[in-house]
């Protein structure tokens, strides 16, 4: 990591801080890994700083992916033609059991760099292929080496990922050792730890009580899958066992009832929305975007499994917005009525991808906006290409048209991890070689 100051100058700065707003032609000064100034920075205040020319660019907070299985970084687009159950058979029960610790490292490192390259600077890594201590250590080491900020969500339930469905055994006790050895001070570099639990949709209520009690004994936040078609009895079951709380994040939430959304809101829980996967893999009719806004539930966007989605949140913003407008207006369309106005806009989606994700994981005092004092997680998007030549609000142009290739510069904690459109650092090329080796091993095992 470098201690040199950074000055990002001349860009259209979208702070997403309501007290600051947008700063056209503005500057962002970064010092000691944090944002030192936003607005117009005097030359004498930036003496010796590395200068990043952001003219013709949009400067935004780093994006936050609230739910991704990062270990699957080697398996991109491998289940694009399957439903959730097809994915379970092919990946969870087919490919995952053969993963070595080396495969976990390669996939997680590559998956983290995929995220960083697309402007995602913080990731909640739902690590549910941990087959022992070596797998856990390889996963955490890969997150560290990538330079990403995030949560390592320790998954289970044991050495056979196929047992994720229905096995009553409680979460592996090894999570206690992982916390003690790898996260002794609660954090480890840019990482912190949480728990990835099955919840009542995938195991017994009794096991879920044991798991939640375990996490709360360790003081760790919890993530579960909830509200997916074919897997009922999630939020209501947690309520009956008095397990709801602000430390619980619910991935998907497509099929939840109004009462269940109210229970999440009242308990302070949060939601991770994976619009692409939820519709392509048929987890439910519509993503929970509108319900999250309606009930005031903290929510963020996520790619979930990149075996069936892209690696970026630009696509998630577009798809989530389109799906919510379709859901909100379906009755009027069914009556063959012309719709006069629509709710939610492009800035709502950018907030979901940044401040919303930070709030969902209780990190909004550290990241999510370009605010003086917060961690310097910053993304610079080159808006000069023809497909980003907009007329009005540049955020609209960004949400409707940008993609990972338009991300020119990525800064995490003051460290430049992408520059000039290319990943930089000691692991950029190494990661490619490792993931190619892992893919060859996976192919050999699955074809044997």
Overview of this structure, please?
Strands 1, 2, 3, 4, 5, 15, 16, 17 and 18 form a 9-stranded mixed β-sheet that branches. The protein has 13 helices and 18 strands. A hairpin with a 7-residue loop joins strand 1 and strand 2 (about 20-30). The protein has helices at about 85-95, 100-115, 135-145, 175-180, 205-220, 235-240, 260-265, 275-280, 290-295, 315-335, 345-360, 395-400, 430-445; strands at about 5-15, 20-30, 35-40, 50-55, 55-60, 65-70, 120-125, 150-155, 185-190, 190-195, 220-225, 250, 270-275, 300, 380, 405-410, 415-420, 420-425.
The stretches of 5 or more residues where confidence is low (pLDDT under 50) are none
CATH topology descriptor of the largest domain: TIM Barrel
Question: What CATH architecture label of the largest domain applies?
Answer: Alpha-Beta Barrel
The largest β sheet comes out as:
9 strands, mixed
Number of strands: 18
Q: What does the radius of gyration come to?
A: 21 Å
CATH class of the largest domain: Alpha Beta
Number of helices: 13
């Amino acid at each position: 990591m470098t201690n040199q100051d950074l000055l990002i100058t001349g860009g259209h700065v979208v702070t997403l801080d309501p007290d600051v707003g947008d700063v056209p032609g503005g500057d962002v000064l970064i010092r000691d890994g944090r944002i030192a100034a936003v607005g117009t920075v005097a030359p004498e205040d930036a003496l010796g700083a590395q200068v990043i020319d952001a003219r013709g660019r949009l400067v935004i907070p780093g994006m936050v992916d609230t739910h991704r299985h990062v270990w699957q970084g080697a398996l991109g687009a491998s289940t694009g033609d399957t439903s959730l159950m097809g994915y379970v058979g092919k990946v969870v029960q087919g490919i995952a059991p053969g993963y070595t610790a080396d495969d976990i490292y390669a996939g997680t490192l590559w998956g983290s760099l995929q995220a960083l390259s697309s402007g995602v600077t913080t990731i909640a890594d739902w690590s549910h292929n941990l087959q022992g201590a070596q797998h856990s250590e390889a996963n955490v080491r890969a997150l560290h080496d990538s330079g990403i900020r995030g949560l390592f969500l320790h998954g289970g339930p044991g050495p056979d990922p196929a047992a994720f469905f229905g096995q009553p055994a409680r979460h592996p006790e090894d999570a206690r050792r992982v916390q003690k050895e790898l996260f002794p001070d609660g954090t480890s570099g840019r990482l912190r730890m949480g728990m990835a639990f099955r919840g009542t949709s995938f195991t017994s209520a009794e096991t879920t009580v044991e798991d939640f009690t375990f996490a709360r004994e360790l003081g760790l936040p919890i993530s579960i899958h909830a509200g997916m078609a074919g897997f009922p009895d999630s939020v209501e079951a947690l309520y009956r066992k008095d397990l709801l709380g602000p430390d619980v994040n619910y991935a998907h939430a497509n099929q939840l009832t109004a009462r269940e959304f109210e229970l999440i809101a009242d308990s302070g829980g949060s939601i991770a929305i994976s619009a692409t996967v939820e519709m392509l893999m048929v987890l439910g009719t519509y993503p929970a975007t509108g319900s999250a806004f309606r009930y005031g539930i903290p929510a963020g966007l996520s790619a979930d499994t990149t075996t069936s989605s892209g690696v970026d949140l630009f696509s998630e913003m577009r798809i989530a917005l389109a799906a919510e407008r379709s859901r909100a207006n379906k009755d009027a369309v069914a009556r063959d009525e012309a719709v006069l106005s629509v709710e939610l806009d492009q800035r709502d989606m950018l907030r979901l991808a940044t401040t919303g994700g930070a709030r969902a994981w209780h990190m909004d005092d550290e990241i999510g906006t370009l605010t003086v004092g917060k961690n310097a997680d910053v993304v610079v998007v080159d808006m000069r290409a023809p497909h980003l030549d907009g007329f009005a609000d540049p955020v609209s142009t960004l949400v409707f048209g940008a993609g990972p290739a338009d991300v020119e510069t990525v800064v995490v904690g003051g460290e430049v991890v992408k520059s000039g459109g290319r990943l930089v650092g000691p692991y950029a090329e190494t990661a490619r070689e490792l993931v190619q080796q892992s893919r060859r091993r996976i192919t050999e095992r699955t074809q044997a």
